[in-house]
Amino acid sequence: MSGHQARKRFGQHFLVDEAVVESIVRAIAPRPGDAMVEIGPGLSALTRPLLQALPYLTVVEIDRDLGERLRREYPEERLRVVQADALQVDFAALGEGLRIVGNLPYNISSPLLFHLSLFADVVRDQHFMLQKEVVDRMVALPGSGDYGRLSVMLQSRYAMFKLFDVPPEAFDPPPRVQSSVVRMKPLGSSRPQPSSQAAFESVVAKAFAQRRKMLRRALGDWAKGLDWDALGIPDTARAEELSVAQFIALADQLYADGVLRG
Predict the structure, then answer these.
(1) Quick one: which of 101, 168, 206, 227 has the fewest CB in 10 Å?
(2) Is 15 annotated as a binding residue?
(3) Last residue of a domain, which of 186, 208, 234?
């Protein structure tokens, strides 16, 4: 195709299906005034049509060869190339009202989503291509098999919508998994928020570490003294049955009782 060999260590699978590209760009609906940031531009499958709608675009690319290729192909006044690992980027330094898009490397998708959540206050929306299994977990509802730590943590910060699936043959080289496109819109300051984010994260992580156990057993000593009736959580509840709001209430109680610290 391009002469560039996909690098496994970067999780590179280049989108080559023009119909899929058009569907993604249509979902993003870029406008000239948008502060758009693309993660992992690769061979410009999304970069090119985005720049047809935008006067300026920032891209984050870890591969030095691809970064140089992008600099040769596009003038600086149209494209800013941030040569870096997206997991290390301070996205707040890139502006406010950011619209972040990308075909994310599947091997770092969860850590990258958690990293990006730190900057949700400066983000307008996010559109990502991810492994279908990951997207299904992101949007899963309580009580479903896909509902877990990723679901709770991201749903506490974003409203998320699965848009459509993408088959392996849309990529070169084809991944061994199905892919999906997801839209993520940060929730505002009026959203339910825990008294301590650290306590909330600890509770969710511990609860799902042994998801087959009843929650009061999975939490171990943390569960002693909790008023489960006041929390509205049945004695026999498992982690996958709790809503985001119930996890926040549980963490707030443990934090107020001094069981957990911020």
Answers:
(1) 227
(2) yes
(3) 186
Whether the full predicted model's pTM is greater than 0.90, yes or no, is yes
User: What are φ and ψ of residue 15, in 5° steps?
Assistant: -70, 125
CATH of the domain at 181: 3.40.50.150
Distance, in Å, from the CA atom of 62 to the CA atom of 82, rounded to the nearest integer, reads 8
**Rounded to an integer, what distance in angstroms lies between the CA atom of residue 112 and that of residue 130?**
11
CATH of the domain at 211: 1.10.8.100
% helix, strand, coil for the chain, step of 5 = 45, 20, 35
Q: How far is CA 113 from the centre of its chain?
A: 3
Question: Known binder of ligand: residue 103?
Answer: yes
Residue 172 and residue 205 share a domain = no
Query: For every one of its 262 residues, what pLDDT tens digit does the chain have, with 9 covering 90 and above?
Result: 454 444 444 445 688 999 999 999 999 999 999 999 999 998 899 999 999 999 999 999 999 999 999 999 999 999 999 999 999 999 999 999 999 999 988 889 999 999 999 999 999 999 999 999 999 999 999 999 999 999 999 999 999 999 999 999 999 888 889 999 999 999 999 999 999 999 999 999 999 999 889 999 999 999 998 999 999 999 899 999 999 999 999 999 999 999 998 7
For the chain, how many structural domains are there in total?
A: 2
Query: Is 13 annotated as contributing to ligand binding?
Result: yes
| 138, 153, 186 - which closes a domain | 186
Shared domain check, 234 and 135: no
Domain limits for position 201? 197-256
Contact between 15 and 129 under an 8 Å Cβ cutoff? The reply is yes
In this structure, are strands 98-103 and 35-39 parallel, antiparallel, or unpaired?
parallel
Is there a single domain that holds both residue 101 and residue 52? Answer: yes
User: Is residue 87 within 8 Å of residue 67, measured between CB atoms?
Assistant: no
Judge if 161 and 204 occupy the same domain. no
